[in-house]
């Protein structure tokens, strides 16, 4: 083989290896894939989750602090498993509620901080929960007249 050909093959091989490393780096960075354990898991049990989905945001004071990892049925109730960023500490008396972005937007979990000195550990359970407001049933009750309104008499 000619020395020019060996140099060309070496250059192409080196370029290919650098390209694969760059592709791997971008995949991990843009895909939020990490090897470190930068989050911990907490659970909350709701009577219903009505429209909440995996990967939904978990927020506190309007700031994203994690995401919903899994929703499963446990003892006839919905158990929501959430991944919370390691730098966020949740008090053991925090309140988890399911809210809607806007009127008909996506559902997300909003956590209100508690006042306890004790924090939830990995695998901890948020005991206080509030299910989502069912807008459809409220509208239906209003339209069909089952919501009681106060009448003023003259």
Shape label: elongated
Radius of gyration: 25 Å
Helix content: 10-25%
- Structural class call reads alpha/beta
Give the number of domains. 2
Number of strands: 8
Main sheet? 8 strands, mixed
**Which parts are unreliable, with pLDDT below 50 for 5 consecutive residues or more?**
none
Give the percentage of residues in beta strands.
25-35%
| Distance between the ends | 108 Å
What is the topology, as strand order, of the major beta sheet?
7-1-4-3-2-6-5-8
Any overview of this molecule?
The chain is of the alpha/beta class and 154 residues long. The chain folds into 2 domains: 35 residues; 96 residues, no CATH class. Helices cover 24% and strands 33% of the residues. It contains 2 helices and 8 strands. Strands 7-1-4-3-2-6-5-8 form an 8-stranded mixed beta sheet, with no helix packed on it. A hairpin with a 2-residue loop joins strand 3 and strand 4. It is elongated. The N and C termini lie far apart (108 Å). The model has no long low-confidence stretch (mean pLDDT 84).
Summary?
With 154 residues, the chain is of the alpha/beta class. 24% of the residues lie in helices and 33% in strands.
What attributes characterize this protein structure?
about 150 residues, alpha/beta, eight-stranded mixed sheet
Topology:
Elements: H1 3-30, E1 39-46, E2 57-60, E3 63-74, E4 77-85, E5 95-100, E6 107-112, E7 124-126, E8 128-130, H2 135-143
Parallel strand pairs: 1-7, 2-6, 5-8
Antiparallel strand pairs: 1-4, 2-3, 3-4, 5-6
């Amino acid at each position: 083989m000619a020395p020019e050909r060996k140099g060309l093959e070496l250059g192409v091989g080196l370029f290919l290896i650098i390209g694969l490393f760059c592709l791997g780096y971008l995949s991990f960075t843009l895909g939020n894939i990490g090897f470190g354990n930068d989050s911990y898991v907490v659970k909350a049990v709701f009577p219903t989750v009505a429209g909440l989905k995996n990967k939904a945001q978990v927020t506190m004071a309007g700031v994203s602090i994690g995401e919903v990892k899994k929703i499963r049925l446990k003892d006839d109730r919905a158990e929501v498993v959430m991944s919370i960023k390691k730098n966020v500490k949740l008090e053991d008396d925090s309140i988890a509620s399911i809210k809607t972005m806007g009127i008909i937007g996506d559902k997300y979990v909003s956590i209100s901080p508690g006042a306890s000195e004790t924090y939830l550990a990995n695998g901890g359970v948020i005991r206080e929960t509030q299910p989502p407001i069912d807008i459809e049933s409220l509208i239906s009750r209003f339209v069909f007249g089952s919501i009681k309104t106060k009448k003023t008499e003259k």
